[in-house]
């Protein structure tokens, strides 16, 4: 069996690793010109099931490395004012496993065949059931199964399920990161909490690697090369609907809304790494009607993009990767035919994917009361 995976995000790479581990041929096609072509280095909180899913896709020999490049999350989830006084609680405390998305991507990429600068433009299914994927700047690729793991604006979904389109919630946010130095020791109670004032919310989260990723890889898995990055604070400011257009940079957009805020909070934004700061929109994709199962399917944000305020998009993409991996292994072993395996995956994925989007939207008003997520 040969599988073409479109999109080198967490979901697509986890699937490709899982298939490679089972001896199934998988190639990944990524639109970006390189793997670190744009800012993607934010931290993610995985729940135990999401972490287990990515672990299951990786070879066992890398599990010690995976365990060394994460941290345990336990956050009080307070609501604080701009002077860091507690004024409420966001909800029950959250626990989980914190990973850096870019570091995890590097681990997931190791040993895979990944073609960059390969933007999918369309595909055809031939009479014998094979799929030919077409790309903007490279020749076509033929496979038994094409998996669209190409994110919220999925080109694969555009052909397979054109009626399923993203909804813009109108909420925008600036995300960035700042090296975690002693100067920010006083902010620790704000990690995992929401700081609110002047019509905006600022969210902070620390990323403290158990061991710096590059050194951890050198010690535990010399066949893996991980980026040389240290601990940092990830911050995100949710902007009101008219936010930020007049500001020259995303960083200035945040600072202009923090006049009189606690000096450590302002210093955190001032010292942010400009290359790792970005203005993003919150768009969701609700899984619509099912298509007849065939040799093309979708996973992750391509079919169920959640609001980041739900903290469940990566968890769900990784769950998809693990589930599809297991279904395809059953097919490769002769326990089920390919279309039966794809159908079994899609039946489950549609159900929990729709629930993931719903629950993420339920949590959006706590961060952006003016959001229109319908
Ligand atoms: C700031 C922020 C914080 C978040 N925090 C959390 C969290 O704490 N917990 C959590 O579970 N989730 C979180 N999420 C959500 C999570 O990041 C996403 O749900 C997850 O990364 C989706 O993975 P994916 O593989 O489906 O898609 P993506 O990671 O979007 O990957 C899609 C890939 O496809 C490529 N691509 C696109 N079009 C094409 C094309 N035509 N041809 C080829 N390649 C293409 C893209 O370049 C990209 O590399 C957060 C998201 C954001 C933005």
Short note summarizing the structure:
This protein has 374 residues and is α/β, with parallel strands linked by helices. The protein contains eleven helices and 18 strands.
Number of strands: 18
Bound small molecules, which ones? flavin-adenine dinucleotide
The secondary-structure element order is EHEEHHEEEEHEEEEEHEEEHEHHEEHHH
| Total count of helical runs of at least 4 residues | 11
Please report the distance between the alpha carbons of the first and last residues: 41 Å
Tally of domains: 1
Quaternary structure of the protein: single chain
Helix content: 25-40%
Tell me the strand percentage band. 25-35%
**Main sheet strand line-up:** 6-5-14-15-16-13-17
Radius of gyration: 21 Å
Structural account:
By secondary structure, the protein is an alpha/beta fold. The chain has a single domain, classed as 3-Layer(bba) Sandwich (FAD/NAD(P)-binding domain). Helices cover 30% and strands 26% of the residues. The chain has eleven helices and 18 strands. The chain has a seven-stranded mixed beta sheet. A five-stranded parallel beta sheet has the order 8-2-1-12-18. Strand 9 and strand 10 form a beta hairpin. Helix 1 runs parallel beside helix 10. Flavin-adenine dinucleotide (FAD) binds next to helix 1, strand 3, helix 9 and helix 10.
